[in-house]
Amino acid sequence: MFTAVIDVFRLMRAALVLARYDALLPKEYAYLLPAPLRVLGVISRFGARGQDLRPGQRLARALGGQGPAYVKFGQLLATRPDIIGFEMSNDLCELQDRMPPFPQAEAKKEVAKSLGKPVAEVFETFSDSFAAASIAQVHKATLKTGETVAVKVLRPQIEKRAKREFRAFLLGAKLAELFSKTARRMEPVKFIRTLSQAAEIELDLRMEAGAASELRENLSENKNIYVPNIIWEFSSRRVLTLEWIDGVPVTDFDQLEAAGIDRKALAVTIMRTFLSQALEDGFFHADMHQGNLLIDDKKRLVLIDFGIMGRLDEEARRTYAEIIFGFIQRDYYLAAKAHFDAGYVPAHYSVDAFATALRSVGEPIFGRDSESVDMSRVLQQLFDVTEVFEMHLRPELVMLQRTMVVVEGVARALDPQINMWQAADPVVRGYITGRVGPSALAKKARRSAHAAFRLAEKFPEFASAAETMIDHVDDDGIRLSRETVADLARALKGKPPKKTAS
Description:
This protein is α+β, with helices and mostly antiparallel strands. The protein has 22 helices and twelve strands.
């Protein structure tokens, strides 16, 4: 009971801050609210700041002033444009993940506690905070071996704070569902629980270490891409130690030019790197914004910060590739059919009608360079179209599309004339060819031949078991004794049936 009262006060405090920026019941969405809430919205807007800003911009400013958990909530909210729309999603990306650092002494205390030994026994040097974000901060350090490393340390008590705040968010979501039919359709309780689970994963730096290691392994053959090495010996749930990278941010155009970096080629590399991760490996960096991309002294693209990752199964990858390829080829029926085959669009709708709807999205942008196309608006239009056809979006595909918008923004900043379709074509075409082309068919044929050979090797035993089974067939169908089932199982393992006494 006491906890619930505290959560109510937390919600009231948050509501006051949101109202101060007209982000509680924004005027732009007042028409969706029932009359009592519209009146409350009018009252809450008296003296509100930022009336000239968009709703998402006001929400970003409100959340940014309420602490790390709220900042992380806003960042996670930005990954769900299917719920909040792409405009608000983009505006929430303005939410600065820069927070005041906590003292070096506290950081050292956290490191010593997590690693089970004093900092001086592990590190020769340990700097003040190099960068401080919502849930952790990074220190530059030197190991006893002389290797320079980055040490990421979670903020003290951040897990408890995040748990408290998300508990309050959940209470707010339940109240919203209780009093608003519109809110119930948005399933805020389910959404908050999803965000809470994502935050829990991000608050365990072992998960980030595992993600970085997997991504490093997946991209190891690409000599133009680099992922820092994890120092496992000095990493734990609250501390992550990894190779230090001295690099040039992809936003520093002057340094890129001084280093002889071709910005147009870099833009294409970034786009293709993202697509390769998603399609070839089904595991991708889902936070590829400008701050997480560097160019090292070997002119390699370096990816950092692996707290938010996305994963796609084979079916989702194939569907996504077919959809993109359909747009690239202007084959809207192919793109539409991919949606239907995956079950994204209910079968009672017409594939041809859906293809026409996709044409309305694709044709206005075909062949145009990135400078004249806003990919976020294109995807928002696609969401609008699919909503008419009751399309059910899978969260992992939404994250993929959201990341693609972020990557497109980075690429466009480097090369305003980049043609996104041309940049994507080789990767998508290669993926599809690898799955359905001659080489893929040859691989399938080899697997089938191998399976047939194994079956032929076991055929005498299998035939013996089958003969036993035939004896149990009568007019009522097939009846299998326990002994027969055992014989079949042994045959499939390459063993002869057990002999019984006659």
